[in-house]
Amino acid sequence: MSTAPFTPWILGLTGGIGSGKSAAAERFVALGVHLVDADQAARWVVEPGRPALARIVERFGPGVLQADGQLDRTALRQLIFADPAQRQWLEQLLHPLIGQEIFSYLAKAESPYAVYVSPLLIESGQFNKVQRILVVDAPTELQVQRTLQRDNTSPEQVQAILKAQLAREERLRHAHDVVVNDRDLQTLHDEIDRLHHFYLTLRGGQP
Predict the structure, then answer these.
(1) Any binding-site annotation on 205?
(2) Which residues bind ATP (predicted)?
(3) Band of the pLDDT at 82, cuts 50, 70, 90?
């Protein structure tokens, strides 16, 4: 008698800047959960030798490469910042490739479920490709405080990033589960551990 092939379901993990989604992601990895980060996938598709990098150099010239052949993200950002047409071209090139990379990697999961981490999970529409959504949330003042401690930036820049991101209410509206990360790291770990045990009981992300 044959059995159906193992198919892990996908948990989408998201949250605003300074919410603690990266710390939550690290805890899932420590628990043995297969995880892919959208930012990491965006780096994979433009590694030396990949077709996307060759297309970028063909369009923008060798000035977008570092001496070691890696993409110079700062140089590229400066070229597209004030040119919406160039930015649109780059997005149309990279977004499908990033999506393919992400879901190809997730399909290799050997854990009962896999985690896809993306700050733009809702805005990008990729929430439609996951079976459940976990939002890591935190009070705005704490988001600002954490980001200032972590990054070399100003309070005004952090506030500008917060304003540019999806409104908290809209993000929470899509959530199946919410972790309010307003205490210490151990408390966050305890919450992720609790959810992990719950997720292990689910099939296709549903009770």
Answers:
(1) no
(2) 18-23
(3) confident
